[in-house]
Amino acid sequence: MTAEKTPRHPPGLPRFLLEILMIALLGAGAGALLNALRPDPLPYVLPGSVLQIESGVRAVFIREAHRLFEAGDYIFVDAREEEEFRAGHIEGALSVPVALFDALYPELQVWVAGQPLLIYGGSPSLLSADELARRLRAKGEKKLLIFAAGFEGWRARGYPVETGGEGLLRENASGESGSDAPSEIEEPSEGGEE
Amino acid sequence: MAVKLLIFLALTAIAIGIGWFWLGRISRRMPPGGGRTVLILTSRWIPAAVFLVAAYGKLRDPYAFAVSVYAYRLLPASLATVFAVLVPAIEVFAALSFATGLLWRGGAVVLGGLLLIFIAGLLQAILRGINIDCGCFGKGSSPVSFWLIARNYGLLLLTLFPIAVERSRRRLLRGASSSPAGGGR
User: Which contacts of A156-164 are long-range, i.e. CB under 8 A and separated by 24 or more positions?
Assistant: First the structure.
């Protein structure tokens, strides 16, 4: 048994320390490597709000968000103000500012039709995205994710962005009397489905 | 608040001291042989197994673990993520070394140190009235409680046991230094 062969080297303090150091360094190296190889590495630097999402919705980070974007399963929802959205947003995203949620939800519901949503806001704070997620959850939407890096993180990576009003639900919502005409709404802003 | 914390820390130190004393006594009185070997291996494999299971849960979902760590309100967000990424892997290496006997003293100290950190974290969460999941096994762990502290304390004693045995053996060896080669048998 390995426990029985110790007397050859009575372990002094330095040996203890050496062993501790070896284990700590090996472990730390393996942990960092494992994280880097993950489908969605956890970033080391992030705001506390990402670890304190009150809506209970899970956060994803840049690699996973981009993968979902490429796969096209998720509808991207922008929780920021309309002006910010016009100035630039993730390609194909829908604009649902938190303040207008109640007015926009009926139409959003038509758009979404059971598809999962990836919500993002501005960085570094997740407040608007978290609040939107909370409200969507309250409406019974279950398939939700929050993109932690927000629009700035997305743009900093050079991923597709666009500007302008495409993806705004507001204009359509104010123009329509109800929310039961999805075919007419879908045409002018096709980007929302990508 | 601070007084409470000091009292609890002092109590923990006393408890560890008493535990260490009894471990020493038990290990000195135990005759070498099959029984002792079984006991030593048990005291190595149980904590190692617990740590491996815990590390698996944490490694599967580092984000959830980082959320748990941050909820203790001890570390800023960025250190919480570093902790969440590095510590489970360190747990794996320490548990493997402790279980297999390769660098096992270092493994024992690392596991013991981690247990002390976890005990301190649990204690301060309870004292500050922070109602959270402990995150001990990753997602969906039980809420913090004194029971968890007791469990960690038990694991700590198990982890220290092989070291106590070896210390007492070395003391014996030093006493019988006239025959160093055969003294360990």
Answer: A157/A62, A157/A66, A159/A66, A159/A69, A159/A90, A160/A69, A160/A90, A160/A91, A161/A88, A161/A89, A161/A90, A161/A91, A162/A88, A162/A89, A162/A91, A162/A92, A162/A191, A163/A86, A163/A87, A163/A88, A163/A89, A164/A86
